[in-house]
Amino acid sequence: MKLLFSYTGPLIKDKEGNYYSRTITDKMLSRYFKIANEVNIFTRVKEVFDEKELKKFTKINSENFYVTECPNISSLKEIIYNSLKVKGQIEKAVAEADIIIARLPCVTGNIVVKTAKTKQKPYLVEVVGCPRDVYWSHSYKGKFAALPSYLAMKRAVKRAPYTLYVTNEFLQHRYPCKGRVIGCSDVSLPKLDEGILKKRLLRINNQEDKPLIIGTTAAVNVKYKGQEYVIKAMSRLIREGYNIEYHLAGGGENTYLKSIAEKYGVLDKVKFLGSLPHEKVFEYLDNIDIYIQPSKTEGLPRALVEAMSRGCPSLGSNIGGIPELIDENFTFSAGSVDEIYRLLKNTDKNMMLEEACRSFKKAKEFDTKLLENKRLTFYKEFCELSKG
């Protein structure tokens, strides 16, 4: 069976034609090879020839894995010059596929869904985020795209025969579907050994006069991830005598956040660690004291679940799927420096011990085998419909 998988991308391509990604890994692809013997990914591709840069990504080695490279159609100019080519590529890719999975939000994914319906090809939609919130928080220009993108995705999801959401409530409410639905995160965690929690509790109890290290895992060049609000809040605490550091893991140009840290006098307290390989992320999380997700828009953030799986006491903004993970007493209004400041100031050892246990317990709901079985059962049901 041939599967067409559409997602926004991009994949990374080296000079030999090998593909790399942080999201699309062999482990992730294995879930699709359980229902298909051939997978064609329809996505954007970025060429990278710098070996040092390539090491930030994971090489894809799966067999029977193919890529249909499509140009961008995100700007007005790209729509004018590339839309006909993209539509032609989609027509061909959909026609050659037996089943289709479209990961949304994605401009080309909306077209894939529409084409699959027209050609009466069985398709499933994976909903991983809200384009309206992303565009609205991105820039002034983005605000003009927020409503059209929201309506386009709402149409794509509404009549999908099968829809998988990464949240349990938020995205289901925002983008309802009349077909079969399931809530199942796409996070992939290592084994949740009780020794992880014991190590965390020991770290908290031995904190003493060491600096309190706050951490966030997110791209540092995307303003709606909200790291600037943490920097501003911690600067107030440092002026009051608190010993705090902020460690940021994530790729992208960090000039803007560095300028914020310099302006608020805490540049020496903000550590930019760059993009970390997935296996190194958990090592980083074991060396921070509090994880914070200050985003202005999210689906259900995998980075937050990963932090909780290491027993990190966690704080987060009250948007998207974050309140599904964190106790409401440890959430704050997105963009509120005052609320972040108060939460951090009121943090004490007892709170951290209690939240470490709660976080680790909550993360067990995202056990990899549990999620894989839940997802695979849903995919198989979809495939049975396809055969019918």
From TrEMBL:
GO terms for molecular function: glycosyltransferase activity. Residues 209-344 form the Glycosyl transferase family domain. Keywords: Transferase. Gene3D superfamilies: Glycogen Phosphorylase B. InterPro entries: Glyco_trans_1. Pfam families: Glycos_transf_1 (PF00534). CDD domains: GT4_PimA-like (cd03801). This is Glycosyltransferase involved in cell wall biosynthesis. It comes from Falsibacillus pallidus.
